[in-house]
Amino acid sequence: MSTILKVDHLYKRYGKAVILDNVSFEINQGEIIGLLGRNGSGKTTLMKLILGLTSFDAGQITFKGDSDYLKKSNLMDEFGYLLDCKLFEYLSAYDNLYVIDKYKKSNKSKKELHDKIIELLAFADLPNNKKVVKGFSFGMKQRLGLALSLLEDPKFLILDEPFVGLDPLGVEDLQKTIFEMREKYGITILISSHQLSEIEQMCDRYLYIQDKKIQKVSKIENKQIKIHLKTPASKLVQELEQLTPLNRDVLILNDDIDLLNKILKIIYLNGGAIENISIESEDLNSLFKGDRG
């Protein structure tokens, strides 16, 4: 996969307070990346830096290999975002989309704009009638925000806490919509949320902000395979310990299929017996439990 966004040695301060300290990471085309961290860790600030809504003190951000993308409208038009979304409460969903497009001066023809709005309303499961946004449920407003973020056919979508305030059905519907956005539009998505179980299901990998720095977490690294042996012979123990540590007749290894096959072959050739094999996942809650600062 090709890199679409690259952040190098980024620093951000507000007065004397350091918000982000030497942050570096890359995001590849088509990925769904979860941005995690405790309240006040700098998630929203990082998103604003990427969008040019606030400035950074040192470092560099490049989009599609261009570090001056913030000054180029053709590249900035490739971003869509749900971030401090403001809606026109006394307009309909259709009119909200219409007004925002005119404000952005996209130069769509009247028919092109109408067709696009109808497509997005259907995609977000929103009514095409005169009901004003003030009467919408929270979930409907969130879906309208997503529709607004897709109005200019973005290639990179930034979603800040899109699940906030949604009931379980609303979360499920929004999660489905986000998956469909990637499948239908091929969009790269950076999403922050405190709904950790939903993030685990959705994302390809995670960026976790802790102590003002980025910790990169992959799903594969979170999984461990445990093999419980039944009184292994000393010769078997010696061979296995050349590949992975053995603790009280229990082998623990990362989710590595090649290594697992080698270990199972050694056990079989040495006449070993397996009591149990289990796969355990260190969920994302463990990141927050270990971050008390």
From TrEMBL:
Transport keyword on record: yes
SMART domains hit by this protein: AAA
Species per Swiss-Prot/TrEMBL record: Enterococcus wangshanyuanii
SUPFAM superfamilies: P-loop containing nucleoside triphosphate hydrolases
Protein name: ABC transporter domain-containing protein
Keyword tags: ATP-binding, Nucleotide-binding, Transport
Claim: Nucleotide-binding is one of the keywords in the record: yes
InterPro entries assigned: AAA+_ATPase (IPR003593), ABC_transporter-like_ATP-bd (IPR003439), ABC_transporter-like_CS (IPR017871), ABC_Transporter_VariousFunc (IPR051782), P-loop_NTPase (IPR027417)
Domain ABC transporter positions: 5-236
